Queue: 2 jobs
Job 1
Amino acid sequence: ATAEIGLIGLGTMGGNLALNIAENGFSIAVFNRTTDKTDQFMAKAGPLAEKLVPAKTLEDFIKAIKSPRAIILMVPAGEAVDAQIEALRPLLDPQDLIIDAGNANYHDTNRRDEEAAAKGPRFMGIGVSGGEEGARFGPSIMAGGPADAWTQVGHILEAISAKHEGTPCAAHLGAAGAGHLVKTVHNGIEYADMQMIAEVYGVMRDGLGMTSAEIGSVFETWNGGILQSYLIEISGKVANTADPDTGKPMLDIILDTAGQKGTGRWTAIEGLMLGTPASAIEAAVAARNMSARIAERKEGEAVFGAAPVALDKAAIATSVLESALVAGKIVCYAQGFGLILEAAKQYGWAMPLPEIAKIWRNGCIIRSAMLNDMASALAEDPARNLMLAPFFADKLKETHGALRQVVALGALNGLAVPALSSALSYFDIMRTGRSTANMLQGQRDFFGAHGFERTDKDGKGYHGPWAMG
Ligand code: 6PG
């Protein structure tokens, strides 16, 4: 056996990850269910082929890897992962390690972790972000599983990861499903970040009547400031690109109905299950669901009329839209980190929040300049709501007025800004010392004698003087 590690699943992501590992000097055995794909992969590998050990059978693949073996799975999330683990189990030694690098639901990773503890071999779940290019040249890697698994392969994962000023964007975040939970929240934040950008694009397009190219240059400008991020950068590029067939802006050709593979939805579900607010992310998931109902939306437009367009160009300055995005972004990260913190408590996972902000600074889809400040703020006090860290509190003081202006403009003119609205509601609720839940408690006690606490006395289980029935 010569290979230091193995990889199963030579689709785009798996193939690129294997080439990345090879390029970093590690010899790697590769296997794909269909041999054709392995042949095609090897034919295109160029000089990296000398670090690659292609195998035609699972048995040959396993023989090619040094013991204790480490095997990365890059197969579609779900049943394919279980099937692959079942196929490998009888062929591996108990001290070997299977690493699921797909977008797994972390509950599945928790289950597989328990099964591995009972039946072997060892198991680890890693979230890998950065799309095809990240996989090939440096992704962000969020690892969960036993500490000794990280000891075995951490150096390889760090070597292949993206770097931020020399620091690897890869870390071990806790046991079992910790890595996949963090990847899921990453994707939930990705959904909200993308949706909020799409919403200000909508204000510029439908409200201010700006062309794609004009909008593109606004994004380009923003990318030089506080919003500097991969998603703002590519939004500018998308807006500035013309369709080669028609010469029209690509954005006017792309159908307005968004797909999703599920990770954003899982984040919203986890927020609800863990009882921690992820409302901006929920709004972004709901907006994708609504976008898919294209026929229904067209019917709605016919019945209610299109939202009034053609606002005065001076109705809102693009700098106000920029500030609104800053405020919305801080809220959605506060919610995302809050969710991770809650999961850490629930499962007893380490979840070093500053470390998570650090490994998101490069390689992943949500990489942005602001994450550096988030890492510092979380290092001061990981358990505090990010919104209350002095740096971000100051930013919110400067920008929540702009968020309010954009949401109000949207509301008055029928321009939908659901994620921004949701972010504003969260901000307003979280700055309200006295909420309206006293009314909810009164109602609950009235119809179900559920009891309430009093503002003037200690203890629980007080009731109002209302008669039953
Ligand atoms: C990444 C991405 C990647 C992918 C997701 C989300 O971090 O590299 O998040 O994992 O884009 O599958 O895709 P959907 O928008 O299809 O849910």
Note: The domain at 5-176 is CATH 3.40.50.720 (Rossmann fold).
Job 2
Amino acid sequence: MAGRHEKEKGVNVQVLLRCRPFSDDELRCNAPQVITCNEWQREVAVSQNIAGKQIDRIFTFDKVFGPSAHQSDLYEQAVVPIVNEVLEGFNCTIFAYGQTGTGKTYTMEGDSKKSKNGELPPGAGVIPRAVKQIFDTLEGQNAEYSVKVTFLELYNEEITDLLAPEEISKAALDEKQKKPLLLMEDGKGGVLVRGLEEEIVTSANEIFTLLERGSAKRRTAETLLNKQSSRSHSLFSITIHIKESTPEGEELIKCGKLNLVDLAGSENISRSGAREGRAREAGEINKSLLTLGRVITALVEHLGHVPYRDSKLTRLLRDSLGGRTKTCIIATVSPSVHCLEETLSTLDYAHRAKNIKNRPEVNQK
Ligand code: ADP
């Protein structure tokens, strides 16, 4: 069954581009706009003259969301089908990739995670919307189900459990740093994180409370350990088991997993960071982001060797990248000239993943 799906679906990597509106600071200094989004043509044009050198480039993506796109537009057009796949028993991963300050967290988490009377605020991002879609669907169907979530942070290739119950303190954090959570093969092609808290949840609201707890812990840990969130990846995973009965009375169990990943700022990939003792950090972030790029390339090009093992991030996501899974990369950029260099680097990274998929020899496989 799995093999059949694999053949039918192939490796599915969808790449979206989102350009945020100008920030107040950018507006105040009249930063020229260097990006034009054509949502209809799914194109992003970059045009700028720098020191007499004219840059004119056009990139095409699976979908493009300009500065006026609402959270609901992105969710309905790009994420609803992915969550439906998860509810059908597939593993899917959504990444936010881009320079710090371009809207990764806004896209994934959004303005507010609190739901009012079951309704989400307009600023709610992908995570709360996915949680709501999952529970609305599960509660509306006549099947037994169970939902588990994990929430972790990867910093310097070390994992912090954002749902661990203990009160956070400098001493506890130091202890955790000495005894980092361990990644272990689960014998089924995936990995387990030994010691990671897995919360069983029964409603969307319970998840919203856990998310708040996890985000607060992330902020506290950042302050206590003098970390920068732009240098860490956060991974929120929802695993769903659904027990259904076929008309013949047979029992059918579907198990799907959705990974929602807010990646470290992509500026860490291009800058050496070899200043002020940040060399190791930059190297480790580099490793995860670069390995992720290589893994996606290997998957879409059907290369024999996929280098999952080369970074913790890709080891963690091994059962959700490739094979019967859908992967979506949301690349985020700023419209301002001040970010031009990083914007071009983000567009190139994202476009590489998109472009490879379209090679005819790959499509024919
Ligand atoms: P990142 O996670 O990439 O560092 P943030 O998500 O923190 O960036 O976004 C930086 C700022 O820009 C935040 O104040 C956020 O609210 C705002 N922002 C980002 N994207 C959008 C958007 N599409 N619409 C409105 N505001 C946005």
Note: The domain at 2-363 is CATH 3.40.850.10 (Kinesin).
